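Hi V.,

You were right to ask for the full record rather than a summary. Here it is.
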Amino acid sequence: MLYVIKASNVNLKLLQVLNKEKKMNKKFVISLIGAPASGKGYIASSLISELKNTYAYKNEDIADVSVGEMIRREKRENTPLGQKLAANMKEGGLAPDEIINEMLINELKTINAKVIVLDGYPRTIGQVRAYGKLMSDYNTAVVFRDTPKDLIMERVKDRRICEKCGMAHVVSDGVCSCGGKLIKRKDDEVLPERLEEYEKMTKPAVIELKENGKNFFWYEGTAEGETIAKEFFESNKKYL
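Predicted structure:
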C-alpha cells in the first residue's frame, strides 16, 4: 500500500525558516567596480572601517581581495595561472575572463571571512554573465563608482607607491615610512589606454549588470567613502 504524506503548514514554515537561515549564513561578497583609479580601494577601506566601527567586525571576519593584486601575485610567483596571464595579456590590459574566473574561484575557496570585499570583479560582459553561477554559494552586492575621466587623471597625477613595500602614497610624501623609494605604478603610466579599454569593455558590462542584476548600488565619483559605507550597510544589514 502506498502512503502519501502531505507536509503540514508547520513543516512548510520550518522549511522556510531553515532556508532563510541557510541564506543568512552564507558569506557576503561585495563587488566593487569602476574605472581604473576611480577610488575602489578608498571605498574598500571605508567599507572595512564601517564594519569594524559600527558592526564590531574583527580583522579575521573581513577579507579584502583585489583582482588586480591577485593577477600581479600570480605573475610574480610564476604560477601556472600566472604563466597563462603573462602569455595572454599586455601590461595594463584586461586578463582573459576564463583565467580570471578560475583564479577567483580558487581564491574564494581559501577564505574563511564572513564578508569579502572584492575589488575589480566583474568587469567584462563575460564575467558578468558568469557572475551569478560563480557567486551562487554567496550573498552578493555590487557597488559601482561612476568617476569622470578628468577627475581620475587629476587624482593619478600625484599618485605613487613604495617600490619596497607597495604602500600607496602621494608624491609630496617624498619617501615611505619603510624607507622605500616612491615610484609611479606601471599601470598608471598606461592609464589613458586603460581608460579606453574600460569604456569599451567594462562600461557595457556595468550597464548589463545594473539592468539584470540584483542588489546593485550606484554612486558618483565624488561621494564620500564614509557616506557610501553607511548607506550601503544600512541596506544590507540582513547579510551581516
